[in-house]
Amino acid sequence: MSLQIIGDPVLHSKSPVIQGAMLAALGLDLEYTPHVVRRGELPQYLAWARERGVTGFNATMPHKEDLIPLLDEADPAAKTVGAVNTVCLRAGKWVGFNTDGAGAVAALEGAGLDPAGLTITLLGAGGAAKAVALALSAAGAKRVFVCNRTLSRAQALCAQDPLGRLSPAAFDVDTLTALAETSQLLVNCTNLGMAGCDHQFEDFSFLEALPRDAAVFDAIYHPAETELLARAKGRGLKTLNGLPMLVNQAVLALEHFLNRPLNRKAMAAVAAAALNQT
Fold first, then answer.
1. 130 flagged as catalytic
2. d(Cα 140, Cα 120) in Å, to the nearest integer?
């Protein structure tokens, strides 16, 4: 029995450190390792993992959405989002879950940024963005503007919100600036600024429009401070990177791997301590 995280790139992932520390704290002798799986290789990986005794894995870019049709089952939240980040082998079936949204909300609340009642501008409409946007709506956000270069993807995401709190928007400087003026929180769920990604924000001027008491949350954790966060911090805005989200979603993922509830606060503390030592 072993656990993995798959993606491309994935060798930079902090998940092995986090999961390894939590497993050790629980007294479980389980291996958790990174495994590079490129786009298009998922069917081969699932067969290989079953043969090699992999009983669960986390998935990062670019596989969160591509996994859905390949799984035997997915929980309701994952189906709604259309993406998974946690997959478990149960009774011979691959079952998918999504812990990104709940992990993001827990991270924000832990930083004193309760999304309830806030107007939020969210960047991106991919797998992580879907989970986070829907979770922010469920957590009581007043309005979440989902900005994406392909507007139809943002529209499709917003249409999935049963509470009607998501609104699609374009991803250009003028639109972002206009939305920033009325937002108390900006959330980046794109890969812009991620280590190993060739793409970056073309213009950061929209940050100037955010109110002085606004905050910026970047779901990226590598590097620890993206250019987006550095620019926001330079304006005196409160910032939060993706590490707390990673920790909180990892605790939830481990509950799925072990198929039992855990002391989430204690496990998060173990994970955070392990990260501080790296």
1. no
2. 11
Q: What is the SS3 assignment for 251-273?
A: HHHHHHHHCCCCCHHHHHHHHHH
Instruction: Indicate the helix (H) or strand (E) that contains 21.
Output: helix 15-25
**Token pair for 48:** 């290989």
Residues 6+ apart with CB under 8 A from 149: 170, 171
- Give the count of beta carbons closer than 10 Å to the beta carbon of residue 198: 6
Burial degree of 236 (CB within 10 A; 0-12, 13-18, 19+) = exposed
pLDDT tens digits, 92-124: 999 999 999 999 999 999 999 999 999 999 999
Q: What is the DSSP letter of 158?
A: H
Question: Is residue 251 a contact partner of residue 271, using CB atoms and an 8 Å limit?
Answer: yes
Residue 64 dihedral angles phi and psi, to the nearest 5°: -60, -40
What does DSSP assign to residue 172? S
Provide the token pair at 75.
Answer: 């929980």
Give per-residue burial for 2-28: e unless 16+ CB within 10 Å, then b.
ebbbbbbebeebbbbbbbbbbbebeee
- Residue 87 has φ and ψ, to the nearest 5°, of -130, 130
| pLDDT tens-digit readout, 31-81 | 999 999 999 999 999 999 999 999 999 998 889 989 999 999 999 889 888
Classify residue 117 as exposed, middle or buried by CB count within 10 Å of its CB (0-12, 13-18, 19+).
exposed
Quote the pTM value. 0.87
Q: Which helix (H) or strand (E) holds 59?
A: strand 54-59
- 14, 64, 79, 93: the active-site residue: 64
